[in-house]
Amino acid sequence: MMRVQLDDEERQVAFGECLGRALNGHGCVHLAGELGAGKTTLARGVLRAYGHGGAVKSPTYTLVEPYVLDDQRLYHLDLYRLGDPEELEFIGGRDLFAEEALILVEWPSRGEGWLPVPDIEVQLRLAAAGREAQLAAFTPHGRAALERLAEAPALAGAIRHGERAAT
Ligand SMILES: Nc1ncnc2c1ncn2[C@@H]1O[C@H](COP(=O)(O)OP(=O)(O)OP(=O)(O)O)[C@@H](O)[C@H]1O
Ligand SMILES: [Mg+2]
Predict the structure, then answer these.
(1) Domains of the chain by start residue, with CATH
(2) Among candidates 97, 59, 103, which has minimal Cα distance to 80?
(3) Could you give the C-alpha distances from 144 to 11, 29, 32, 51, 140, in angstroms and in order?
(4) Of 17, 63, 71, 152, which sits with the fewest C-beta atoms within 10 Å of its C-beta?
(5) Are the C-beta atoms of 98 and 26 separated by less than 8 Å?
(6) Is the CB of 6 under 6 A from ligand 1?
(7) If you measure from the C-alpha of residue 54 to the centroid of ligand 1, how many angstroms do you get, rounded to a whole number?
(8) Considering the entire predicted model, what is its pTM?
(9) 126 DSSP β-pair partners
């Protein structure tokens, strides 16, 4: 487990960029946290790591927004309005999760019971200043990515002392 303090929006994006790079272009990341916790902002940083410079529209109604960046496939899901986890079948979820892609899922709690175990779960919370991110890995790929992330020079100082070790 790893905890990171993100004082402002700029750091939130920079952290997403580091996370994106640490994932080497594939895997699934759950972005959990209440309304306004900064999930989409973090997703913007991850997409930036693959060359997406612009804004990120929240696929609240379409549920999924696909990106192809530099031959790299990314999917940004927002399940806030998902009525039932089974609806993920109808939007082609099974094929999507079978791809060699990088998948970001906002509101993963809405898909519980259907969604596969993620490589990494990021839990975002409001902090006294900005946000705090708590990360946990559930697969070997996720653990390796957290180890790379802990070494990112851009995060020096943001990672809570004594909690650098990825588990
Ligand atoms: N580390 C941060 N410090 C301060 N403000 C932040 C930080 N990260 C994001 N914000 C701000 O929080 C607001 C909400 O961010 P964002 O849209 O990313 O949240 P969200 O978790 O995706 O919300 P939703 O559940 O509605 O999808 C934005 O105005 C954003 O600029
Ligand atoms: Mg959002």
Answers:
(1) 2-155 (3.40.50.300)
(2) 59
(3) 22, 14, 21, 23, 6
(4) 71
(5) no
(6) yes
(7) 16
(8) 0.95
(9) 131
Q: Which of 4, 9, 29, 61 to mutate to test the pocket of ligand 1 (most atoms within 8 A of CB)?
A: 9
CA distances from 6 to 23, 25, 37, 109 (A): 20, 23, 11, 23
pLDDT in tens, 25-57: 999 999 999 999 999 999 999 999 999 998 999
CB neighbourhood size of 139 (10 A): 15
One-letter amino acid of 73: R
58-80 confidence digits (pLDDT tens): 998 899 999 999 889 999 999 99
- What ranges make up the beta strands (E) of 7-156? 27-32, 64-69, 72-78, 102-106, 120-126, 131-137
